[in-house]
Design a protein that fits this description.
The protein is mainly alpha-helical. The protein contains 19 helices and no strands.
Length: about 500
């Protein structure tokens, strides 16, 4: 069925709700993360750092899967790719929901991580299967859904976990995935009959191996010992795998992400900034819900999962609101002003968390300020990339930037767990307040690095008009990316 046939199909009126629902599913997958980590630890009788892998592994898989799924979905098999991904997400949701132990839950969350690549495909479908204002409004609705849906999903999944246990939250994710699969099977249109691009399997394997080994070394170094053979071996494997990946991406005819597009100063700055901001972002997204739920006697606030999720709601709302005005600031002042400004705002949020943690409202305030900084930053980066690369290479450059964001997310998640575990005294169940201060100071230092990096940009740059053509799924990934998750996002 061609694009024209898809537009004339009687199921076309249902296409927009189904696409929006797919974006909501990504929000559900993302919201089954940070606030539930302490509950996962309690339900499985493991430490919180071990339970943190239920968040980190989803982001890790998302980092590798997003460009792979985008590449597969750019061809004539987009419908098949969407259905297969939804089936895998459903299987992962069921696996995570079953009371089989932490290992199986982490495996299920890894399968769910494939779902972080769904929204780019949904946006690409809206641009090809719809036309005119209908297409533009649907793309805008998908972006709003990703940005706001995750924040709303945090308290929703928290309430479900509070009422029925942590596995009930994952059963909710399984039900949402089943509905999405059934709806997509009925409504999702076929893609235009265009040849697919070649998939860089070796590049995906090298990237996945390097990231997995590095995160495992970082996450387990405190338990195994920083100089243990396991950690040193994983560190060596990380260096070899990622170095090999870089060499292969520079030489491959059809690389997974084209690193050659990062050679200019503007592009390299944008990609380095995406990684560092993603790291600083998840340092707090991982640690704030944990602090909120820790007992008062241990220095926490003893809140429920619902309240811990609500703390992240102003982050999502602030990041979405800030992204609406960031483009105007970029046009009037340029990235050399906007990006360092965003780094300052993000750093102030980190500093607030480091200095003011005596009252619960202070956590809400810190996350609001962090959301403003992240929203401005991630909204301004695409314009910097578009102006730095040839028009024909925009999709590949955006794909690389998306990968760097997810790498930063996963490193931030793993690093927060490692820092807090290192600060926890032997025999104690919870880290002292100094552990959270260390998290904040690492975040502040990261923001200082971002400010210095972005302040070196040229004061003026030539702005290129957007190319008049349909975006690939890889290009759509950056439009849909939420500042916090997957997918965002």
């Amino acid at each position: 069925m061609t694009t024209v046939d898809a537009q004339r199909s009687p199921t076309r009126p249902l296409l927009v709700p189904v696409l929006v629902y797919l974006a909501m599913l990504v929000a559900v997958i993302s919201s089954l993360g940070a606030p539930l980590v302490p509950a996962i630890a309690e339900a499985n009788h493991v430490s919180v750092p071990s339970a943190q892998w239920s968040l980190t592994v989803t982001l890790l898989v998302g980092a590798v899967a997003t460009p792979v799924i985008g590449r597969l979905g750019d061809g004539r098999h987009r419908r098949t790719v969407v259905l297969v991904v939804l089936a895998v997400v459903l299987a992962g949701s069921v696996l995570a929901a079953l009371p089989l132990g932490l290992g199986w839950l982490i495996g299920g969350r890894a399968l769910q991580g494939l779902g972080l690549g769904l929204t780019p495909l949904a946006i690409a479908t809206a641009r090809t299967a719809l036309s005119g204002e209908r297409s533009r409004s649907t793309v805008a609705a998908l972006s709003v859904t990703v940005a706001a849906g995750v924040g709303l999903g945090y308290p929703l999944t928290g309430a479900i976990a509070e009422a029925g246990g942590v596995h009930a939250a994952f059963w909710f994710g399984a039900a949402a995935s089943a509905v999405a699969l059934a709806a997509a099977a009925v409504v999702y249109p076929a893609s235009p009959d265009v040849p697919p691009r070649r998939l860089d399997v070796l590049g995906a394997l090298l990237l996945g191996t390097g990231l997995a080994a590095g995160l495992l070394a970082l996450g387990e170094a405190e338990d195994w010992g920083w100089t243990s053979p396991q950690v040193l071996g994983l560190a060596a494997l990380t260096v070899v795998a990622l170095a090999s990946w870089v060499v292969w991406q520079l030489r491959a005819a059809a690389p997974l992400v084209d690193l050659r597009l990062a050679r200019s100063r503007d592009a390299a700055t944008a990609h380095g900034t995406a990684l560092l901001v993603g790291l600083a972002n998840y340092l707090l997204l991982s640690s704030v819900p944990r602090l909120a739920q820790e007992p008062v006697a241990a220095g926490g606030f003893g809140t429920s999962i619902v309240v811990a999720g609500l703390i992240l709601l102003p982050f999502s709302l602030a990041s979405f609101s800030a992204s609406r005005i960031a483009s105007r600031l970029d046009r009037s002042h340029g990235p050399r002003v906007v990006l360092p400004l965003a780094a300052v705002v993000l750093g102030v949020g980190q500093l607030l968390f480091g200095l003011l943690r005596d009252e619960l409202w202070q956590l809400f305030l810190a996350m609001t300020v962090v959301g403003l900084g992240v929203g401005i930053m991630f909204a301004a980066l695409p314009g910097l990339i578009v102006g730095a690369v040839p028009r024909s290479e925009t999709g590949s450059a955006m794909s690389l930037n998306q990968v760097m964001r997810y790498v930063g997310f996963s490193v931030g998640s793993a690093l927060s767990a490692t820092v807090l575990e290192a600060a926890t005294p032997a025999g104690a169940a919870f880290p002292p307040s100094s552990g959270y201060s260390t998290i904040a100071w690492v975040g502040v230092g990261t923001c200082v690095a971002v400010g210095l990096l972005t302040s070196l940009l040229p004061s003026r740059r030539a702005l290129r008009p957007e190319p008049v053509r349909e975006p690939s799924a890889a290009e759509a990934a950056d439009v849909a990316a939420a500042p916090h998750d997957p997918t965002a996002r």
